[in-house]
User: What shape does this take?
Amino acid sequence: MLDTYREVVTPEGVALHLPAAGPVPRALAWVIDFLIRMAMVFVSGIVFGLLGRGGFGFQAVMVFLVYWFYPVLFEAMWNGRTPGKRALGLRVIANNGAPVGWLAAFSRNLLRVVDMLPFGYATGLVAGLLDPWGRRLGDMVAGTLVVHDARPHEPSPAPVKHALAPSVALRPYEQAALVAFGERGPHLTEARQAELADLAEPLTGARGTAAVTRLYGIANWLLGRR
Amino acid sequence: MKQELFVQRHQPEWNAFEQWLDERGASAREARKSRRGWHGLADADMPARYRRLCQQLALARRRGYSPVVTERLQDLMQRGHGLLYRTPAPRWRRAVEFLVAGFPRLVRAERGCMLASFVLFWLPLLVVFAAIVWTPDLSSSLFEPMQLREFEHMYDPADPARKLGRDSGTDLAMFGHYVWNNVSIGFRTFASGLIAGVGAIVVLITNGIMIGGIAGHLQAVGHGDPFWRFVAGHSAPELTAIVIAGGAGLRLGLSLVAPGQKRRIDSLLEGGRRGALLCVGVLAMLVFAAFVEAFWSSIAWMPAWIKYTVGGVLWTLTAAWLLLGGRDRAHEDASA
Assistant: This one.
């Protein structure tokens, strides 16, 4: 419930990290989609209303399609995203990280009937909170997952030019943490940089600005900048 | 190897891969059209490049390279993975094949649930019908007097100008109404099966009682003729579709209650997949039924014997389709 990453090992034996989305962004996406659907029904109602009684039949078919197939069509044809999900940066994917197929999109949306019980998606909310990856019942049965789209962030070069070899051999995760500090530290305030660098006092043997400079130096060395 | 050197050495490869994804990965059809004008990474090399990328990502993780590098690689890999392992687009040929052969096969494969659903629907229907024909007063305990008057009004044999079973409205309007109403009932019957099957059972029994009650009442008060002429045509696909939707719902409920030797989630996945496939067939049947109901059943001047013959033919065809469809290829998995 606290760690919402789902790790999927692909056929190539590499782990994909899929950040599962929680109930709040999903509910907001649903509200956006709901407004769009209302607008579609409203507009088509005006258009078909001009056709007289026969238009009522088209309108009923339109309501049917918007109610049952709006999310299915968007999820299957638009890479797992309805307009609402796109606005919130969400995406539906299959459990194994592959894009969601027609059948899975169909069944996860059919089963909204159950997730909506007894009112306002209460069942879906409870299921989502109990499930480690925030899936509602429809997601579980269809084998799908709603994830956050990855947001790429650009590296910024460390503000220090020199390279400094670390005094002790570092483990891989320690190296990764230092390199990450080197690449993302410049985005932080000076005080926060110093605060973080203080944590590495055993390594740098310094505190404050001096420690920050040394850590950037070590990061440069680890990155291979000489 | 230091990170910068690693990046420097492989960057062009990643960029070529990314460019390929951006420009050719989106649509296979577009890619086929613009094959000649493309000078980047060859399509045939893409899987090999993808596997190299996976290896590079694993290396980068193991060597503790920064998140900027691993995230970039994971992003590329995820896009490649999505492309290589996407489900095939549905094809018309396969859709027709599914309706003709795969669907009946799937229905027969779930014959236990289908039989249970059949009994749950038809037993109350017939019992209530027989009871009301026997003692007509019973119908007033099932329906409000207002409702009863409405039913009688709809199938009034003394009013020859009216269409059968209709108050007003064009055939087209009624078609839309039947699609929305009946398919929604079918889908809900299936989905509510997830509540341990209880939802599907309730829907089946209530529908059985209601339909049996209306038919029994109209028969008892002497409005049977227009009623039977109206329902003869579309009853076969419509009632059968409701039974199948109920069976699919029972199957789903059973996956939850009695997963057998599978994990419960795997059992539910299987039940959901089959249920969704069955719902595709139910959708087709109910749209067909709505078509018949809107454009054929309501024709009032048609002699009764033609209507009953057509009804009989449709019942026979439905039964033959479900019992015999796809017999010749019995072992093929019905996945659409």
Observations:
- Chain B has a mean pLDDT of 84.
